[in-house]
Structure formats: structure tokens, C-alpha cells
Amino acid sequence: MPVSHVPLPEGRLPTRYSVETRWLHWLTALMVLVQFALGETWGFLPRGTVVRVGMIMTHTSVGVLLAATFLTRIVWAVTGGRAIRFPVRNLSDQVARLVHWLLYVMLGAEIAVGYMLRWSRGRPVMAFGVPINSPFADMGVGVQRIFGQCHYWLAWGLIMVAACHAMAALYHAIICRDGVLQRMLPARG
């Protein structure tokens, strides 16, 4: 049963997000970091090597899991699963909301462009050995380069915004000591 999105009175604000919301957040963060690390390192290996091919296959498989997790997060947020809404009281809260929206938009775009990069070659996206066939014919090298550059720069942009998000969380934990980071951490004992 979904919980109402009505904010609680000031003195009764929850201390942390639901277990499901926290799992989805940290799972997304982990997969984004794995995807970025794989994408930035396989280029150092010779083409056709088993390790490089394995890294690319892992990247596409984790990408499909990331897409599923991303869609789950969207459904979770709009259907009332993520029922806790912390109030927006000041500029800092407004910036935090904007950054969260930016992360969602950038991640959604990165996932979509990743699929299009693969499909623009007329190739399937392989997830754990199962093909997700391309609905498109080969679009040519020029289009593939555009999708490749977009995928590359979106990845870097996403990592930069996520790093700022993480630094802001640490700032709240270490400098402000206001409990903001604890909202996304597991409950103690």
C-alpha cells in the first residue's frame, strides 16, 4: 500500500529514505561507476583480446541491468513507493532537487544513447548472451560517431555531476552535520 506524499509536520520528518529507495540509489551508483570504469579502460587493451571482449560484454550486460534499475526507480518514484519527500526550505534544497533531476535526465539519456550507439551499427545489444535486436539497419559511420561522442561526453558529465552530488553529501555529513547523508545510509543497530 503506497504511503501518501503529504509531507509530515516539521517535527516529524523521517530520518531516512525507505530501504527500497536506498537499495535502488546505491545499486544505481555502483553500476554507473562500474560502467564508467569499464568504458574508460578497455581502450587500453588490444582489440580482440579475451579481456577486452569480456569487458565490453560486461559493459553491455550491466547496461541492461542499469536500464532496468533506472526504469524501476522511475516507477518507484511516480507510483508512491518513494513516499518520503523532504521539504524544500532554502536555496541549498532547491539546488539539491535540481541536481537530482539532472542526474535522472543525464542517466536516462546516457542509457538511451548507449542503446542507440550499438543499434546504429545494426547490431544487437547483448545482455548475458541474450540479444536485444536492433530495430534499425546500419546507420553509417557518421551517425555511429555522433552516438559514440554523445555516449562518451554524457558519461563524463554524469560522473562529474555525481561527484558533485557525493561531495555535497560529504559536506553535509562532515561540515554541516545535519543528517542529510544519513537519509541514504542504512539504519544503525
UniProtKB/TrEMBL annotation:
It is found in: Cell membrane. GO terms for biological process: respiratory electron transport chain. The keyword Transmembrane helix applies. Residues 16-186 form the Cytochrome b561 bacterial/Ni-hydrogenase domain. It is a multi-pass membrane protein. Its cofactor is heme b. Pfam families: Ni_hydr_CYTB. One of its GO terms (cellular component) is plasma membrane. GO terms for molecular function: electron transfer activity; heme binding; metal ion binding. PANTHER family: CYTOCHROME B561, CYTOCHROME B561 HOMOLOG 2. This is Cytochrome b.
